[in-house]
Amino acid sequence: MILILSRYDNKLQDIHLIPVLHHLDQMEESYTFYAYSSFPSESSVIVSFNNSSEKKILIRTHNADIDLTKIKTIWNRTPGIPKAPENTSNLFKNYIELESSSFLKSLPLLTPQVKWLPDPIHQEIANYKPYQLDIAVSVGLSIPHTLIGNDRKSAIKFLEDHSFVILKGQQKGTATSELPVLQKLFQWVKNKITDSNSEKINVTVVPSQKFCSTNLLENIHHLQACPVNLQSYIPKQFELRITIVHKQVFACAIYTQGSDVPEAHVDFRKYVDYLHHEAYTLPADIEEKCLLLMEKLRLDFGCIDMIVTPENEYVFLEINPNGQWLWIEEKTGLPIAKAIADYLANPPIST
After folding, report:
1. Could you read off the pLDDT of 324-335 as tens digits, one per residue?
2. Residue 50 lies in a domain
3. For residue 277, what are the CA distances in angstroms to 115, 179, 203, 267, 334?
């Protein structure tokens, strides 16, 4: 039995599920669904121990009981977060949801016989951007020059050394909805900044943006408010989205620089429909380093973003341990959904 963690009541709301379920149906694999957001008000989770090796881990929903000791794989797609019962006071609501979250986070540790894709413990660790960069360097991947923190003197030196920089938030894929908070912490980002080409840049448009260092230096006194990621701007020939499922590597070239959408030249994520994509064969040494990165992060799934410079240098930007991939498959035909289904149906044996 395969367990799919999905927060959606209507499975069609997550289009990534559709092709994977199609492959699982073809393989006649049985699967069931569960959402952490139904816990604790609409479902129960029971863990019981005794002095012998016997252990019970049961998820009880309105429809069925799910014995986690009999599950072979868990697709940790979109689990959701626990929600307290409606009409709970704020005091008890926060306590209930924190306790519930802590309890559910222990489940991967209690089910070592189950393969999780991705494993939530290692996914959480791999989401820390400074750690990603550290591991990337350790496996021999190139990265942009990076400064992370809130020290003004260090930031001034960094900005003096780089004409253009990329500004990022700390959290994984800082969402557009979160950027007003970033704006309040950095008043120097709150205003529209003009770069050397007099092109107005509004930080609310995309999660990361290119800035002229001179503009940031003029407002550096606001830096103490919050740590920031500053990276040197890397010129691009094109970009790569590399999706890895266990040992299978699916690389896609995204031609952002020749597009008619100027915003996509810096951050393409909102403009993928307008960009040319094609399957790409990585150099053997880069593929090997990507697989070693996954091994060191203890991930069996991940989406790597990389730049190929005009000088054909490969530069690692970040890895999303539970990233989006369906648009890559639709544009290139790369069989990512089948690779996920194969993993869920026949998980690799741990060594």
Report:
1. 999 999 999 999
2. yes
3. 32, 28, 26, 15, 11
